[in-house]
Amino acid sequence: MNVTKADIVDKIAGETGLTKLETKAVVDGFLLSIIGALAEGHRIELRGFGVFSVKSRKPRMARNPRTGDPVPLEERFIPAFKVSSEFQEKVHDKLRAGSTSQNTPDTQ
């Protein structure tokens, strides 16, 4: 199942008492702040969640898969996210608990 931004807005609005419109503005502002900071070359550390950063990829020669001709690629900058160990443990524990309960045989 996929979770969309609208699903996140609905959940936060339901838990905080804010309207969906207010919550959408906050979520959009948060995401735009991350994008803007990364575009300026900043590193964003959210304790207990993870770190957003920008990694550079060196220029290199690639090949066009159709023709086999060499294609020069310039240096590229790629947004990256490294999950915190706390976040990773919570996801692992939750999914592991869910998978073990699904794998237990039903008693009759």
Sketch the topology as an H/E string, one letter per element.
Answer: HHEEEEEH
Structurally, how many domains make up the residues?
2
- What profile does the largest beta sheet have? 3 strands, antiparallel
Strand order, largest beta sheet: 1-2-5
- The CATH topology name of the largest domain reads HU Protein, Chain A
Going by CATH, the homologous superfamily of the largest domain would be IHF-like DNA-binding proteins
As residue ranges, the low-confidence spans are none
CA distance, first residue to last residue: 31 Å
What's the CATH C level of the largest domain? Few Secondary Structures
The helix-and-strand class reads: alpha+beta
Task: Summarize the SSE layout with pairings.
Blueprint: H1 5-16, H2 20-39, E1 44-46, E2 50-57, E3 60-63, E4 70-73, E5 76-83, H3 85-103
Antiparallel strand pairs: 1-2, 2-5, 3-4
Helix pairs in contact: 1-2
